[in-house]
Amino acid sequence: xxxxxxxxxxxxxxxxxxxxxxxxxxxxxxxxxxxxxxxxxxxxxxxxxxxxxxxxxxxxxxxxxxxxxxxxxxxxxxxxxxxxxxxxxxxxxxxxxxxxxxxxxxxxxxxxxxxxxxxxxxxxxxxx
Length: 128
What we know:
- This protein is mostly helical.
- The chain has one domain (3-23, 38-124).
- It is 69% helix and 0% strand.
- It has helices at residues 3-23, 39-57, 68-89, 99-124.
- Helix 2 packs across helix 3 and helix 3 (68-89) runs antiparallel to helix 4.
- It is elongated, with a radius of gyration of 16 Å.
- The two termini are 17 Å apart.
- The mean pLDDT is 91.
């Protein structure tokens, strides 16, 4: 991955983290109607999956692809940010920490990071 794209990915990760922090800093003032049960878990899965993807994109590729250690690093970083977000929400009036949200964060980070790595490695013809 070219240095310019890696820097952009890092900037996107930082901006995404700021957006997540900002969104979880205030109480939920207008509850939206639920389209399906546990839809907030899908939102967590996508939000933290994208964060893991941004982290992964900031890492250099080797032999045209990502290594498992890089993928797991992206997953752990996104999951740790999810943990800090849940802790942060425990201090926000009208919000609470939810272990199920953290699980959705971790699952999303894992799915997105591994799918991105698989796609990049396949596209670039990396050796396994």
